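Give me structure tokens for this 36-residue protein.
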Amino acid sequence: MNPVASSHFNFTSPEPTGVVVVVCPNEPPLLALVSL
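Here you go.
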């Protein structure tokens, strides 16, 4: 239950959002993350 500034309740539930994939090359790993 989340607090709200009115006279009702707010409930949240986790929902699936799909597939999240991060692909990094083998050579310069830090440069690949910074260039995104």
